[in-house]
Design brief:
The chain is α/β, with parallel strands linked by helices. The chain is built from 22 helices and 21 strands. The longest helix has 19 residues. The chain is globular and about 100 Å long.
C-alpha cells in the first residue's frame, strides 16, 4: 500500500485560482459558513459550540480550510489564511490576510465562535451558544456575498485536501482515480447538499486535470507558494513551530478517507450507488425500482442481477396491460369460461413451491401501466409482514394470496417519459427508489474514440443541455456512447466510422427532438458545425475534435 498526494504543482494552480477571486461581500460570513457546515450545522440540526467534540471539529475544519502548517508542525500566531483572502493579499488590497492574526492556533476555535456570535446580521440563528442556520442562508450567501459568482469545486477541493494522504492499495494509481476520489470526498467532507452545489459551486472537475505525487506537500511548501513572490503581510510571517518543539495544543485528525471510503470513491460509479449497494437495498426492502433517463444502465443491472437468482420472470407494463394478465381472471377456452392465473400469480406460486430458492420478478416500464388497476386489491400484499389479499374470484382453487419472503420484485422506469401519469403513491411508499444518473466515469475509463475522452464529451453535452434546456430528464445516459461490442482488451472502442454514424443517426436526432428542431438550442448543445450532421467521416472527425477535443 502506498500513500499518494495532490502534487505541489496542482496546489499552486489552486492558489493561482484563489488569487483571482475578489468578492466585495462579507467574506468572514462565508468562511464561517464552511467551518461550521463541516461541523454539522444546518437549518434543522443545531450544534452546541461549547461542546468539547464540536470544538474539536471546529479545529479540524479551521485547519483543513485555512491552516498554513502541516500535521507535523504546531501553529502559533498568523497561522490561518482563508483562501478567499489570498487574492486581496496578493493585490495589496488588504493589510490583514490572516484570520485572527494575534491569536495562536490553540485559541482559534474560540475566536471562530466569537466571529459567529458577533455577526450582525448573521446567517446563523444563535440561542445560548447553540447554532442553526437561518432558513434563507443560501439565498443571502448567493446574493449578498457571492453576488452571482460561484467557486470552482475542483480548486476548492484541491485546497481543502492540500495535505491529505490517500493510502491506496495499488502499485500504481492514476491521476484520474485520485481526481475521482477528490470529487466524491469533498461533497462528503463538507456535508454539501444539492442546494450548496447548485448555489455556490461550478462542478468543473471534467474541465480540470490533477497531478499526483508520492511526496506530501509540506507546510513550508505551502508557505513558499503563498509568500515567495509577494513577501509576508505587514503583520509578519506565520509563527510555525516544529512538532518536536512543544506539545501540540490540538491533535489534528487525519483527513485521509478510510480504506472503505477509498474503495467506494475509486469505483467508476459516478454519482450512483455501486451495484453492491443496489443489491443490498433490494435484499433489505425486497422491492425496488430503478429510475433514470434512458441509457443509465438500468437494463444492464437487471440483466446481471437476473443471473444471480434461481428463478426470474421479466414482464413489461404498457397502457393496456390488465389485472387479468397480471393476477388472473376469467377467460374463454374452447367456448367455456375458465379462471386462469396471471403471470404474477404464477410467480408467487412458483416461489412458494421452491421456498429454499431465490426468485426475482422484474417489471420493466412499471410506470407505463395503470398500477391501481393492474394490482387491484393485491397491492396491499406489497407491505409483506404476512399481509394477504382476498381475491374476488378464486384462481386455481386459491382465494387469497400473499408474498413469500423468497420473492423479490425489481422495477424499472425512464424518468424522461413525461407522457405517463405519476406513480401511484401506494406504490411509492412500498418500494425503494434508486435513481441512476449518467455515469461519465465509467465512460472515460472504458470507452475509446481516438484521443477523445468520451466521458468528458458526454458530460459536456449534458452540461449544455442543462444550460439551454434546464431539464434533467433530457440528459443522455452513457448507453448513447457505448459501442455494441467489447474489444479483446476489455475496453469498448469506436471505429471512426461507427462513432460518426452513432452521432449522426442516434445522438443528434435525440437532441433535435429535445430541442424541438430549434436550431439555436441545438447549436448551443453541439456547436454550429455538428448541428446539421456532417456526412463525410473525416470532416466529422475534425469538426468533432474542434468542438469536444
Amino acid at each position: 500500500m502506498s500513500n499518494y498526494y495532490i502534487s505541489k504543482k496542482t496546489v499552486e494552480s489552486a492558489v493561482e485560482y484563489f488569487s483571482g477571486i475578489d468578492y466585495t461581500g462579507d467574506n468572514i460570513t462565508l468562511d464561517m459558513y464552511w467551518i461550521f457546515k463541516r461541523c454539522g450545522v444546518s437549518t434543522s440540526h443545531a450544534i452546541d459550540t461549547g461542546d468539547k467534540d464540536v470544538r474539536s471539529e471546529i479545529f479540524q475544519s479551521l485547519w483543513a480550510y485555512a491552516g498554513l502548517f502541516s500535521r507535523d508542525e504546531v501553529g502559533g500566531k498568523r497561522s490561518l489564511m482563508f483562501p478567499d483572502k489570498i487574492g486581496a493579499f496578493r493585490r495589496g488590497t488588504t493589510k490583514n490576510p490572516y484570520y485572527s492574526a494575534g491569536s495562536a492556533f490553540k485559541q482559534q476555535a474560540s475566536r471562530a465562535v466569537d466571529s459567529v456570535r458577533n455577526m450582525n446580521p448573521s446567517i446563523f440563528k444563535k440561542v445560548n451558544g447553540v447554532l442553526t442556520l437561518d432558513p434563507d442562508y443560501d439565498t443571502r450567501i448567493a446574493n449578498d456575498i457571492l453576488k452571482g459568482k460561484k467557486f470552482s469545486l475542483f480548486f476548492f477541493a484541491v485546497w481543502i485536501n492540500r495535505f491529505t494522504a490517500y493510502p491506496i492499495d495499488s502499485d500504481h494509481v492514476t491521476a484520474k482515480e485520485v481526481q475521482r476520489i477528490l470529487q466524491k470526498s469533498i461533497v462528503s467532507f463538507l456535508r454539501l447538499d444539492k442546494a450548496d452545489l447548485a448555489e455556490f459551486f461550478e462542478d468543473d472537475f471534467s474541465e480540470q486535470s490533477i497531478e499526483v505525487s508520492d511526496v506530501p506537500l509540506s507546510g513550508e511548501d505551502l508557505r513558499s507558494i503563498l509568500f515567495s513572490s509577494h513577501g509576508f503581510p505587514l503583520e509578519g510571517e506565520p509563527e510555525i513551530l516544529d512538532g518536536t518543539e512543544g506539545i501540540k495544543h490540538v491533535e489534528l485528525k487525519s483527513l485521509t478517507p478510510t480504506l472503505e471510503q477509498l474503495k467506494r470513491y475509486i469505483l467508476p460509479t459516478g454519482k450512483n450507488p455501486s451495484p453492491s449497494q443496489i443489491k443490498q437495498t433490494l435484499e433489505l426492502k425486497k422491492q425496488a425500482i430503478l429510475t433514470g433517463v434512458p441509457g443509465t444502465g438500468k437494463s444492464r443491472f437487471i440483466d446481471e442481477e437476473r443471473k444471480k437468482f434461481d428463478y426470474s420472470t421479466l414482464i413489461q407494463f404498457h397502457p393496456s396491460f390488465t389485472y387479468e394478465q397480471f393476477i388472473g381472471g376469467e377467460t374463454l377456452v374452447n367456448g367455456n369460461v375458465e379462471t386462469k392465473p396471471g403471470i404474477f400469480f404464477k410467480a408467487i406460486q412458483n416461489a412458494e413451491s421452491h421456498p429454499n430458492e431465490k426468485h426475482l420478478f422484474v417489471i420493466d416500464e412499471i410506470n407505463r401501466g395503470n398500477i391501481a388497476e393492474i394490482f387491484g386489491e393485491t397491492i396491499q400484499i406489497l407491505d409483506r409482514k404476512n399481509y394477504f389479499a382476498v381475491l374476488p374470484n378464486s384462481i386455481s382453487g386459491i382465494d387469497r394470496i400473499s408474498l413469500p419472503d423468497n420473492l423479490y420484485i425489481l422495477g424499472a422506469m425512464n424518468s424522461s417519459d413525461r407522457s405517463i401519469a405519476l406513480l401511484d403513491l401506494a406504490i411509492r411508499r412500498r418500494f425503494a427508489f434508486i435513481e441512476l444518473t449518467p455515469n461519465y466515469e465509467v465512460v472515460s475509463d472504458q470507452v475509446r474514440y481516438g484521443a477523445i475522452d468520451v466521458g468528458r464529451f458526454l458530460e459536456t453535452v449534458n452540461t449544455r443541455i442543462m444550460r439551454v434546456l434546464g431539464d434533467s430528464s433530457k440528459l443522455l445516459g452513457q448507453g448513447y456512447v457505448f459501442p455494441q461490442t467489447q474489444s479483446q482488451d476489455g475496453t469498448w472502442t469506436w471505429s471512426e466510422e461507427e462513432f460518426h454514424l452513432q452521432f449522426n443517426y442516434v445522438i443528434l436526432p435525440t437532441l433535435k427532438e429535445y430541442a424541438q428542431e430549434n436550431d439555436s438550442i441545438l447549436t448551443g448543445i453541439v456547436g454550429s458545425e455538428l448541428s446539421n450532421g456532417i456526412l463525410d467521416s473525416s470532416e466529422f472527425k475534425d469538426a468533432f475534435a474542434r468542438e469536444f477535443g
